[in-house]
């Protein structure tokens, strides 16, 4: 197994044995990109995305055409990244049956 294959597998194993909150933003992007960018080191691509767009949420909200301007991001990777917010919204809608509404301090995680 090459270092690249090993790194990809270690990311997957770490995710499967942990929680996503234990990952840095660039590691989240790396893990996602391993599914859309074959046979290429995705760490520099993940870092370039964060350097350009500033935060994980900004990357995921950026139109595919803008994402594709980053070296290493093709149609598949841009589509996968754009899919994440839409998939999350759909999951939450199905899971909760409606749009979540945060109206109290407790909803927001604060104390009353």
UniProtKB/TrEMBL annotation:
Domain of life assignment: Bacteria
InterPro entries per the UniProt record, alphabetical: RuvA_2-like, UPF0758
Gene3D superfamilies linked: 5' to 3' exonuclease, C-terminal subdomain
Protein name as annotated: DNA repair protein RadC
Organism: Thiocapsa imhoffii
Lineage: Bacteria, Pseudomonadati, Pseudomonadota, Gammaproteobacteria, Chromatiales
């Amino acid at each position: 197994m090459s270092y690249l294959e090993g790194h990809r597998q270690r990311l997957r194993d770490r995710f499967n044995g942990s929680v996503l909150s234990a990952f840095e933003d660039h590691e989240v992007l790396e893990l996602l990109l391993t599914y859309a960018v074959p046979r290429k080191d995705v760490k520099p691509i993940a870092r370039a995305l964060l350097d350009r767009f500033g935060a994980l949420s900004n990357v995921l909200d950026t139109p595919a055409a803008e994402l594709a301007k980053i070296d290493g991001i093709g149609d598949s990777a841009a589509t996968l990244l754009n899919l994440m917010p839409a998939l999350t919204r759909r999951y939450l809608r199905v899971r909760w049956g409606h749009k979540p509404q945060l109206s109290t301090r407790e909803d927001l995680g604060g104390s009353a």
